[in-house]
Prior knowledge:
Blueprint: H1 5-10, E1 16-19, E2 26-28, H2 31-41, H3 49-66, H4 68-71, H5 79-94, H6 100-113, E3 120-122, H7 126-135, E4 139-144, H8 150-156, E5 165-168, H9 169-172, H10 179-189, E6 196-200, H11 203-211, E7 216-220, E8 237-238, H12 241-250
Parallel strand pairs: 1-4, 1-6, 4-5, 6-7, 7-8
Antiparallel strand pairs: 2-3
Helix pairs in contact: 2-6, 3-5, 5-6
Amino acid sequence: MPLTAQFVRNLQRFRLVTFDVTDTLLRLKDPTTQYIQTAATNGVVGLERSKMELCFRKQFKWMSKKHPNFGRDTPNMEWQSWWLHLVERTFNGMDADIPQDKLKTIAEQLLIVFRTSVCWQHIQCASEFVQCVRQTGKCVGVISNFDPSLPQVLSAMGFDKKFDFILTSYEAGAMKPDAGIFEVPVKRLQIAPSEALHIGNKFDLDFLGARNSGWSSLLVQSPPDPKLDTSSAAKYIFPSLAKMLQTLQSQEFAW
């Protein structure tokens, strides 16, 4: 996509532009189906989709509370172990009689496949948006609540060499919306927070997290979350990444 003079002017004040990943640049295809299919290849069949989704959400919430940030600060727990425990707890919630050796195999296979292009898809205009920002000469990075495998995922999806840095919450030791994760890149680059822009899809984690850290931010949110009052931020919210790009390419944007 050609770079417009308007796009350059709109980003003129920024030296750093960062993106969230999940549901901003990339989207999981169908994780529940992947769980069920992987189980089936290992002889575990008859799993109910709705129950699987419920069990996963329950166990993800429990693991995130008990061992935050993918177990980063839990003694003797690597991030891989965090995911293996989550998968095992999810399947145990489905069927407590699944043999332990099968559970271990299923969990290990899921850990591998979710780091490949099999489980992810591009969001429309994601690659074009990142490339346009790169063409302006800005430092372009990723800030994501993710485990250390994120560079592997981005590489598998063709985003290798598209970013100047990839900062995960695991590396930073802080999860969005904590200001600690937003402080890392501005300190590294020795720039002011006001010279940084973050683009994401979560109002609390991305939009407010960045703004409360002194950054500017834009939000992709479709549909809007009815539980959140975003009326004061309406001008910074777009229904899609494609619409955000189109607006920045063609209209003057008042930050």
